[in-house]
Amino acid sequence: MVDNHNDPAANHAAPNPGVLIADHYNRAFGYTTRRPRGTRDWLITCTIGGEGRFRLNGRLFSCRSGDIAILKPGTPHDYEAAEGEGWEFVWAHFVPPPYWGRAVQLPEEENGLIFLALEDEALHRRILQAFERLILDARTWKGGEELAMNGLHEVFLLLSRKFAAREGPVLDERVEKVLQRMTESLQEPHSVASLAEEVHLSASRLAHLFKEHMGDSLMETLLQLRLRHAAKLLAFTRRPVSEIAESVGFASPFYFTKQFRTFYGCPPTRYRREQSL
């Protein structure tokens, strides 16, 4: 029932995580996607017209104009265009940077599903405008993905302001600052001690606070940030692997290849080749 098997939003297989993909669809009845194991990234849809239907855990969620559905990684789901109406919507697959923090702490309607109704028409228009920009930016060859992520961040900030979750931990502002600092300067030789100094904490206190809020250690998170950005550069540029490794903070291309293989399951050259297929 999938009308385009090369289409990442329609394909039964999810796209590779870590790369933002977005588009605007208008699909007729028969457009169906089934993902019994979910995806390894996040998926957001915002309905413009018609009706889309999500199925999770035996429950049916109907999406009409102004409704937003956000699926977290690993959430089994099906979705389809409704019979007789079709479904017009914008969507994005993405991995939120850790420093987004509070912006993705939205109330879940079902385990793994955030479902929000935008009854405010002005808010709906603004979110659609942000999507229009980020979709155009995501299609550009060089530098567009970073702009697209900024547009998607705007969407989540708007949603957070309107629907902020009332429960759950709030990301400590010092942890948030450290995450943003690392994300914006991956090439620098960061250490727990140097980052702790920037937020006026001891190294041991920052390490404990970071682990408490993020689940992973500070240096593990930094490694993941570097590898995810390297994956984007491999997919969207022709820069040599050694140059990419250096640009994200790896002094040794051999160590970079080892860590990349461990994280993505294949060496950088194979990853780049598969992305170009």
TrEMBL record:
<keyword id="KW-0238">DNA-binding</keyword>
<dbReference type="GO" id="GO:0043565">
    <property type="term" value="F:sequence-specific DNA binding"/>
</dbReference>
<feature type="domain" description="HTH araC/xylS-type">
    <location>
        <begin position="176"/>
        <end position="274"/>
    </location>
</feature>
<keyword id="KW-0804">Transcription</keyword>
<dbReference type="InterPro" id="IPR003313">
    <property type="entry name" value="AraC-bd"/>
</dbReference>
<dbReference type="InterPro" id="IPR018060">
    <property type="entry name" value="HTH_AraC"/>
</dbReference>
<dbReference type="InterPro" id="IPR009057">
    <property type="entry name" value="Homeodomain-like_sf"/>
</dbReference>
<protein>
    <submittedName>
        <fullName>Helix-turn-helix domain-containing protein</fullName>
    </submittedName>
</protein>
<dbReference type="GO" id="GO:0003700">
    <property type="term" value="F:DNA-binding transcription factor activity"/>
</dbReference>
<dbReference type="InterPro" id="IPR037923">
    <property type="entry name" value="HTH-like"/>
</dbReference>
<dbReference type="Pfam" id="PF12833">
    <property type="entry name" value="HTH_18"/>
</dbReference>
<keyword id="KW-0805">Transcription regulation</keyword>
<dbReference type="InterPro" id="IPR018062">
    <property type="entry name" value="HTH_AraC-typ_CS"/>
</dbReference>
<dbReference type="Pfam" id="PF02311">
    <property type="entry name" value="AraC_binding"/>
</dbReference>
<dbReference type="InterPro" id="IPR020449">
    <property type="entry name" value="Tscrpt_reg_AraC-type_HTH"/>
</dbReference>
